[in-house]
């Protein structure tokens, strides 16, 4: 609730200032869309958005191009969706739970605590009817078309000033965790706080929060969280992997040629894979550096905690989903898919990862 | 060795017949490439290749198009690389270990027993220097440019007429397993046989082989292997995931505009993700059907077997890799990356998959 107020508040405050800046440019059959991102220009996600935009321009022979504004360049990070809905931009980029103030179901698109891994999410999106279901129950009702545009892969559990051993340690904790994971934590008495990326480190430094989850080792190291707190927990039960969302003004999307749609969709799918692959490729080096150079203590959530949180998640999340017909439909769709994926991943990915240690390969 | 003779034999036998059919078509700045596939037209991979070709045509505005020939339409499945090398085609499609007769290092690109998962392979390919390393040590020496063009995801261990409990059961077994897994099995006295896809079921039916691995539940069910043998083992230690390869005549690739290269590369990356996602999405339904409707017995390789095979793999595979400078360089590159990924995946994917059962979500 706090979060929704916060989001709505910031959004309404400043969209108006940007409205005059951008309208779709049309000349000689060429379309230029304004794209606004919730992520900073300098990071991996800013770069990925630039490359996506460049690709669409190239592949469409300039028929569709983008003027890209990263976080803060045209509107504030959490105002990206307002900007698209108001016509200031035609496309936005963020994480679905950033828009929880606009939709009761949209957070389910991002990630579910104890839900799907990145590999499973992509199976759901592209061949499990996930894109259509997300559109039907979350994006189309907001006048938008959903476009998967990245995945963080497995997240870490988060950073804590003190060790967390039992559910009692969650009570009274001031912790930043967006999305459904935060809803679960709050039932243990945690004071769950949502902050935009730029405010996380200052809040941690000032003691306004006792801890935070962010993404994974590479992104977390870049953010400098290790400078303030040293207990780094895994696994990231709250976001086994998080889908990043492109969202396009539905009228602009529907009016697009089929050829341009194909270019945007395939370009986005490649971006999705590239972002996931990059996070995976760089996480371990960062993790090593955090533990060896920055005195970070890598800690596994206790079985007791995981069991208690898991049990609670299975009560809290369906209750949240059941508040609206859209939420219920989306939740049931994801849960149905999760059932099959859990079985298959247990026979394949999980069993293999446990068996892999049997071979100890050496450099030659 | 048997395998290499077999491959070379069939390849030399019939490439000549096709040479006259195809030369790159050039008119008004338009290029048409002939593409030859080792996979059948009807399956998931045939369809994915068609869609890739269609996308490149669309996105390039017809500047680059393909005339696609699936397995057997222009050349036999295992002749696809010969066809590209001889100039009959400009692009081919298959699995890297199909071309083991041409390169001592190329099988390492496909998969390594106890090696990388699909998610890790993509991290290696796109951000771990994998594409460049595969080109340097395997494809460029063959006059080709490598293009990742799909991934099977986690494979199953395979189909056996009899139960396999100890390494003694591997001795004398006639088993189809391509790639490095077969090399490991052969050291246990297994008679390892390579057969093209179309010959696997007949060989199993006639008793020419006692068992076979193929891909995963969905592909295996389509092949009808359950009709002959009922013991279905996991995990697929031999191919934790297998990269499928597009390979392009290096001169044709190098001559391509940068824009067209970008379209081909992003189009291929999307195809890579789509194929992996589709396999993941459909495997569990197939697995259920196999066990409930077709009396298939799902069996886990014993810890004893996994330990023995893993230990042997760690001896055999570096020996094979060390035969050539290219093989050594490629092996060391993959092994170095695997070390970091194993650590990170243990903290993330493996721990999460084991923790996930804490939440038992129900439909609402």
Task: Describe it.
The structure is a homodimer of 364-residue chains. In chain A, 49% of the residues lie in helices and 15% in strands. Chain A is an alpha/beta fold and 364 residues long. Chain A has 2 domains: 2-151 and 242-280, Bacterial extracellular solute-binding protein, family 7 (D-Maltodextrin-Binding Protein, domain 2, 3-Layer(aba) Sandwich); 158-239 and 295-350, D-Maltodextrin-Binding Protein, domain 2 (3-Layer(aba) Sandwich). In chain A, helix 6 (130-139) runs antiparallel to helix 13 (325-355), helix 7 (179-186) packs across helix 12 (303-321) and helix 9 (217-223) crosses helix 11. The radius of gyration of chain A is 20 Å and the shape is globular. At the A-B interface, helix 2, helix 5, helix 11, helix 12 and helix 13 of A face helix 2, helix 5, helix 11, helix 12 and helix 13 of B.
């Amino acid at each position: 609730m706090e979060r929704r107020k916060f989001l709505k508040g910031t959004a309404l405050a400043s969209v108006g200032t940007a409205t005059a800046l951008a309208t779709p440019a049309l000349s000689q059959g060429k379309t230029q869309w304004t794209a606004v991102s919730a992520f900073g220009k300098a990071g991996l996600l800013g770069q990925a958005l630039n490359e996506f935009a460049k690709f669409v321009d190239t592949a469409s022979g300039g028929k569709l191009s983008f003027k890209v504004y990263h976080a803060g360049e045209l509107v504030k990070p959490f105002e990206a969706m307002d900007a698209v809905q108001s016509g200031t931009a035609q496309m936005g980029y963020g994480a679905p739970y950033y828009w929880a103030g606009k939709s009761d179901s949209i957070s389910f698109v991002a990630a579910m605590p104890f839900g799907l891994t990145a590999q499973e999410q992509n199976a759901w999106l592209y061949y499990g009817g996930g894109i259509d279901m997300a559109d039907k129950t979350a994006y189309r009702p907001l006048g938008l078309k959903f476009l998967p545009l990245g995945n963080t892969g497995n997240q870490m559990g988060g950073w804590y000033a003190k060790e967390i051993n039992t559910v009692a340690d969650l009570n009274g904790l001031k912790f930043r965790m967006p999305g459904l994971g935060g809803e679960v934590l709050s039932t243990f008495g945690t004071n769950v706080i949502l902050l935009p990326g730029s405010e996380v480190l200052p809040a941690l430094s000032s003691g306004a929060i006792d801890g935070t989850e962010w993404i994974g080792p590479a992104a977390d190291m870049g953010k400098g969280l290790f400078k303030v707190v040293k207990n780094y927990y895994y696994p990231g039960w709250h976001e086994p992997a998080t889908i990043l969302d492109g969202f396009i003004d539905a009228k602009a999307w529907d009016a697009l040629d089929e050829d341009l749609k194909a270019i945007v969709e395939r370009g986005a799918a490649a971006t999705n894979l590239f972002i996931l692959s990059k996070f995976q490729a760089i996480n371990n080096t960062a993790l090593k550096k955090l533990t060896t150079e920055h005195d970070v203590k890598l800690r596994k959530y206790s079985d007791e905690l995981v069991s208690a949180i898991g049990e609670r998640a299975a009560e809290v999340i369906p209750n949240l989903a059941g508040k609206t017909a859209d939420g219920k439909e989306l939740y049931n769709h994801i849960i149905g898919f999760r059932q099959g994926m859990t079985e298959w991943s247990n026979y394949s990915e999980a069993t293999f990862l446990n068996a892999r240690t049997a071979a100890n390969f050496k450099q030659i």
